[in-house]
Amino acid sequence: MRLIARLRDDVRAVRAGDPAARGSVEIVLVYSGLHAVWAYRLTSRLWRTRPFPGARVVARVLSQLARSLTGIEIHPGATIGRRLFIDHGMGVVIGETAVVGDDVLLYHGVTLGGRGAGPAGRRHPSVGDRVVIGAGAAVLGPVTVGDDASVGAGAVVTHDVSPGDTVVGVPARPL
After folding, report:
1. pLDDT tens per residue, range 134-147
2. Helix/strand/coil for 143
3. Which of 21, 51, 95, 99 is the most exposed place for a label (fewest CB within 10 A)?
4. Could you give the number of structural domains in the chain?
5. Could you tell me which residue, 116 or 152, shows the higher pLDDT?
């Protein structure tokens, strides 16, 4: 997808996901979740293509700069789909081997993290398409959250979530 089309797609995702969004100019200027996603897209390209020696170090430095500016940490090695909307994103963490599908909504304080050092390979969750993860929820380890699922605020997910299910609690269980 061309760059301008991708940027417009991201802005439209914010407009669709946030009824308080008053217009594209406001979204572009003040939505930290959008800024974090855009920074991720740049750092991820550096991480994956390595156009010059040391590109991965530069990608990590830029991702940490974006973290300090937005309060949202997205590792450049993560795989993020289209139209991710991070609403009130302060404290969101997306780990290196996390996979996030299309049209996902994350609220503030969400962690897509690992559980311990573990072996090399997938250490972080895979989140399907059209998933909503509530404020303060933690999805930990190499689990899968299926398409159209919802994770309640404050839930701690350590096992797979079936497509379409809603899970809540500590540990998270289906409603």
Report:
1. 999 999 999 999 99
2. coil
3. 51
4. 1
5. 152
Burial 30-53 (b: 16+ CB within 10 A, else e): ebbbbbbbbbbbebbebbeeeeee
Residues 16, 19, 23, 24, CA torsion sign: negative
Tokens of 14: 């914010």
pLDDT in tens, 83-127: 999 999 899 999 999 999 999 999 999 999 998 766 677 899 999
Q: CATH number of the domain that 65 lies in?
A: 2.160.10.10
Q: How many CB atoms lie within 10 A of CB 1?
A: 9
Strands in 126-127's sheet, in edge-to-edge order, are 79-80, 99-100, 126-127, 144-145
Give yes or no for a contact between 109 and 89, defined as CB atoms under 8 angstroms apart: no
What pLDDT, on the 0 to 100 scale, is given for residue 89? 86
Q: Are 139 and 126 in contact (CB under 8 A)?
A: no
Residue 78, C-beta contacts closer than 8 angstroms, at least 6 positions apart = 40, 44, 94, 95, 96, 97, 98, 99, 100, 112, 124
